[in-house]
């Protein structure tokens, strides 16, 4: 070790006695420097101090204990695990994993709305308190075992909007309907869906309304949430395809659980085409490819969700009115629409040429209709509506639409319009 030079010895000797506690007391150690006020540079800027990063355990301990706290959410079953989705229909950081044995013992199903009491401060173990706000142990029907029947109870949608009045006249909707709104881009399908949602909320408050938006534009999601008085379940186009399919599947499962309780549920789905595209992206490799490059798996899964709509003898009903894109130039979209069309029992067709002429709602009256509509209309209504269709069939699309719109807008109600039609063959 080098000995101090004579100059160093003279400097140490000149220091005050209080600072001469050791050979290196004039140069504070790193420990003493952290304990004192941070050193400053010649520019008088404070030296940067390293902020310690809290460990995950420390962050969790800073939160209030969640023991005995009750959490309500929808049950989801993924990869043989049971989750309580606490913040919506998609996976989130506050979800709770339920023991599989406990879920089986209680008979939990995907789509159940449950309330669980957290048993440990970690918030990862929970005891189920109630299922759909009912006591545990109550016997429940199974949706697959319920008897499907034709829609017989009419869902009147007539409001001040022209589109809802046209729907009641041309394509009546019943509880348990499986309806399609077939529309090319920019033909007004979103406006039609909002009008239907407003009519259901205003005229049928006892109906459980769910609006499911798949791959929608973010601004449209905001508009729906602000305007629709119902549950809006949405994914935006910038989310992964698996989010679109998972959200739609869990929403339909939730609707099924309500039907099992005898509730009447209406699901407005926008759109089946985007849902089919999402399923096509995530389809397992090696599947059969159909017309337009679409996988058979995508067609089957989309039809399976759409086919859940039905009226039942046991009392509940699930109505699905979904949009489907047509005239997009895609063979895949055309094939999907034809598949959905064969499974639906109501179709409202919007026309691009009418929309370009600024005729709204741009409904193709001749191509729109409801299967077994005689079960939803009274005898008098049925006779008048059939005569109206015979008259409109002899006109082109523009004349048919303008004629019926003029008659609807000059009549205070559809009943008054039908009474006027009973006395005249002129749809105006």
How does the SSE layout of this entry go?
Layout: H1 6-14, H2 30-35, H3 56-62, E1 70-78, E2 81-85, E3 96-98, H4 100-106, E4 113-118, E5 126-131, E6 148-149, H5 162-170, E7 178-183, H6 189-203, E8 208-216, H7 218-227, E9 231-236, H8 241-260, E10 264-270, H9 272-282, H10 296-306, E11 310-312, E12 317-325, H11 331-343, E13 346-349, H12 352-356, E14 369-370, H13 379-393, H14 397-409, H15 414-423
Helix pairs in contact: 8-9, 9-10, 9-11
H/I helix tally: 15
Termini separation comes to 112 Å
What is the CATH superfamily classification of the domain at 148-375? P-loop containing nucleotide triphosphate hydrolases
The CATH topology of the domain at 148-375: Rossmann fold
The general outline is: globular
Largest sheet: 9 strands, mixed
Helix content: 25-40%
Mean pLDDT comes to 82
**Would you tell me the structural class of the helices and strands?**
alpha/beta
CATH structural class of the domain at 148-375: Alpha Beta
For the record, the CATH architecture of the domain at 148-375 stands as: 3-Layer(aba) Sandwich
Tell me the Rg in angstroms: 33 Å
- β content, as a range? 15-25%
Q: Low-confidence runs (pLDDT<50, min 5 residues)?
A: 16-65
The arrangement of helices and strands along the chain is HHHEEEHEEEHEHEHEHEHHEEHEHEHHH
Extended strand count? 14
Organism: Nonomuraea muscovyensis
Family: Belongs to the Rho family.
Domain Rho RNA-BD: 68-135
Keywords: ATP-binding, Helicase, Hydrolase, Nucleotide-binding, RNA-binding, Transcription, Transcription regulation, Transcription termination
